[in-house]
């Protein structure tokens, strides 16, 4: 019997507390409308409202299926986006503020890259005897591998050339091929593309190397102007006549 009375008293007390709290809230709201709240009371009330709104928003984000589905769609779209690397400005006569960017190439880009590779071989006066079909297969193999990476050199939305490179076991970078289309040369585009690649390694504390053919003095001058310096000389002793060379023996050529 006593327990029942105590429970009834507790329930009555709680009910009175709720009513008193409600009355106090109503009085506070009236005082707020009349501008009678003290600054500290007003600040406390604003903080309470902000906390309540934040709690409601957090609960909605946690339990709203539509919002969760929308967030997932946004994340998937961001993952699908092909985000290019850092860009730098160019002054090549194509207009102020033109941007040079490095954009990863795909396997389906192999035919065009192989065509540029052919022009690179001609420009360097290389002795590489590979046919167009062999160059295409080699380029496709590089693009399918995890070792080599080809990137388009983009001038705004136009393709100006490409860069083929890899990261060696010691973490250093190696540039195998750099080609800039002839109409874009002597404009600083090649230098800026190299800078984008080199700066990435510089920030990681690694170095970048490149092989330059003796038959390509223009290329040697270009790489020197880009800050590269000779550190070794690779010598080659032919064991067969030039007519007897095959594509496999020219793997080290451009």
Plain-language structure description:
Residues 100-248 form the N-acetyltransferase domain. GO terms for molecular function: acyltransferase activity, transferring groups other than amino-acyl groups. The protein is α+β, with helices and mostly antiparallel strands and 254 residues long. It folds into 2 domains: 16-80, no CATH class; 88-250, Aminopeptidase, CATH 3.40.630. It is built from 7 helices and 6 strands. It has a 6-stranded mixed beta sheet with strand order 1-2-3-4-5-6, sandwiched between helices. α6 links the parallel β5 and β6 (208-210). α4 crosses α5 (132-144). The longest helix has 32 residues, at 2-33.
Brief account:
This protein is α+β, with helices and mostly antiparallel strands and 254 residues long. The chain has helices spanning 2-33, 39-63, 65-80, 110-123, 132-144, 189-203, 217-225, and strands at residues 88-90, 98-104, 148-155, 158-167, 173-180, 208-210. A hairpin with a 5-residue loop joins strand 4 and strand 5.
Break the fold down into its secondary structure elements and pairings.
Layout (H helix, E strand, L loop, with lengths): L1 H32 L5 H25 L1 H16 L7 E3 L7 E7 L5 H14 L8 H13 L3 E8 L2 E10 L5 E8 L8 H15 L4 E3 L6 H9 L29
Parallel strand pairs: 5-6
Antiparallel strand pairs: 1-2, 2-3, 3-4, 4-5
Helix pairs in contact: 4-5
If you compute it from the alpha carbons, what radius of gyration comes out, rounded to the nearest whole angstrom? 35 Å
Shape: elongated
Arrangement of strands in the largest sheet: 1-2-3-4-5-6
Would you give the CATH topology of the largest domain?
Answer: Aminopeptidase
- Helix proportion: 40-55%
What is the straight-line distance between the termini?
100 Å
Tell me the fraction of residues in β-strands, as a range: 15-25%
Whole-number tally of structural domains? 2
- On the 0 to 100 scale, the average pLDDT is 77
How many helices in DSSP terms? 7
Main sheet summary = 6 strands, mixed
Structural class: alpha+beta
Look at the structure and give the CATH class of the largest domain: Alpha Beta
Ranges where pLDDT stays below 50 over 5 or more residues in a row are 80-87, 89-96, 242-251
């Amino acid at each position: 019997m006593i327990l029942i009375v105590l429970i009834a008293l507790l329930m009555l007390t709680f009910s009175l507390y709720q009513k008193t709290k409600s009355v106090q809230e109503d009085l506070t709201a009236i005082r707020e409308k009349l501008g009678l709240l003290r600054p500290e009371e007003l600040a406390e009330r604003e903080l309470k409202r902000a906390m309540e709104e934040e709690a409601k928003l957090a609960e909605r984000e946690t339990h709203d299926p539509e919002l969760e589905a929308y967030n997932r769609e946004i994340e998937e779209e961001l993952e699908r986006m092909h985000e290019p690397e850092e860009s730098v400005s160019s002054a090549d006569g194509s207009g102020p503020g033109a941007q040079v960017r490095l954009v990863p190439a795909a396997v389906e880009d192999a035919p065009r890259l192989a065509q540029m590779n052919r022009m690179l071989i001609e420009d360097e006066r290389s002795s590489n005897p590979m046919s167009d079909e062999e160059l295409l297969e080699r380029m496709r193999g590089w693009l399918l591998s995890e070792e080599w990476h080809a990137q388009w050199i983009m001038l705004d939305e136009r393709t100006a050339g490409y860069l083929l490179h890899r990261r060696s076991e010691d973490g250093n970078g190696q540039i195998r091929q750099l080609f800039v289309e002839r109409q874009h040369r002597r404009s600083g585009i090649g230098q800026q593309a190299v800078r984008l690649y080199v700066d990435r390694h510089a920030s990681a504390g690694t170095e970048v190397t490149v092989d330059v053919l003796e038959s390509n003095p223009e290329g040697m001058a270009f790489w020197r102007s880009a800050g590269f310096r000779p550190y070794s000389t690779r010598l080659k002793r032919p064991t067969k006549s030039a007519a007897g060379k095959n594509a496999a023996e020219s793997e080290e050529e451009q």
